[in-house]
Design a protein that fits this description.
Blueprint lengths: L12 E5 L8 E3 L7 E5 L2 E3 L2 E5 L4 E3 L17 E11 L4 E5 L8 E5 L5 E6 L7 E5 L11 E8 L8 E5 L2 E2 L3 E5 L12 E3 L1 E2 L2 E2 L2 E11 L5 H11 L5
Antiparallel strand pairs: 1-19, 2-3, 3-6, 4-5, 5-19, 6-16, 7-12, 7-19, 8-9, 8-16, 9-10, 10-11, 11-15, 12-13, 13-14, 17-18
């Protein structure tokens, strides 16, 4: 079966980071925007960036491409990543919003090892919408996994999807308070840090984000097949 890498030409691709080939303390993202990425720790390896679970992170700044709401309406987004978890607890693939009343969105595992995607209204952690997979990923530690998810911008739990190795897995709603829309709180988007604590322990090999675009399960499957050779 011939697999194509058409995802690199998607006009809605706002962030693409093949971290397995990106050495150095800073570098531009490998997409048309060339967003500046700044590394703290996160050692380069031929398989990706290795995060130590305590202090390592990659800051993506606060560009408009990674802002997904204006306080009134949300933008749709899609995310995928190849990752190997040394610890499945608080595995923060990409989040935005650090500090009180500054939460925006998170694509991550929780303290219970549950794979989740969430957005927060007006930076308030008590005004949440999202979905999660209710089976802990603890048994998946040490394995390369293809994480993917999407949000259609509707502000409802029905607008979220989560996929693990291109199989849809979300089965539980995350809902709190009266949700309106997320908005920019002026914080950086970050790989490896969930809110105030750097907690990602493992390797991120590759990461992509799309704005105003909901990728389908078939599209995620095609991307997984086009990129999995490095992680098989």
């Amino acid at each position: 079966m011939k697999v194509r890498r058409d995802f690199l030409l998607d006009p809605n691709l706002v962030l693409y980071l093949p971290l397995w080939k990106m050495d150095g303390a800073s570098f531009p993202s490998q997409d048309k925007h060339g967003l500046l990425c700044t590394v703290t720790g996160a050692t380069w390896t031929p398989r990706g960036r290795d995060f130590n679970g305590t202090s390592d992170l990659i800051s993506l700044g606060n560009p408009s491409q990674l802002i997904f709401g204006n306080g009134t309406v949300d933008n749709a987004f899609s995310i995928w990543a190849w990752a190997k978890m040394d610890d499945a607890t608080n595995f923060a693939i990409i989040t935005k919003g650090i500090g009180a009343a500054a939460y925006e969105y998170a694509f991550y595992t929780q303290s219970t090892d549950l794979f989740s995607v969430s957005v927060y209204s007006n930076g308030d952690g008590n005004l949440e919408r999202g979905r999660q997979y209710s089976t802990a990923l603890t048994s998946k530690e040490g394995q390369w996994l293809f994480f993917a998810g999407s949000y259609d911008g509707s502000g409802t739990v029905g607008g979220f999807r989560l996929y693990l190795n291109a199989i849809r897995v979300d089965d539980t709603n995350l809902t709190a308070g009266v949700y309106v829309a997320l908005n920019d709180k002026g914080r950086n988007a970050i790989i490896g840090q969930k809110w105030e604590t750097s907690t990602l322990n493992g390797i991120i090999g590759e990461l992509a984000v799309y704005k105003n675009r909901v990728l389908t399960q078939i599209e995620f499957q095609n991307i997984m097949l086009a990129t999995k050779g490095r992680y098989a």
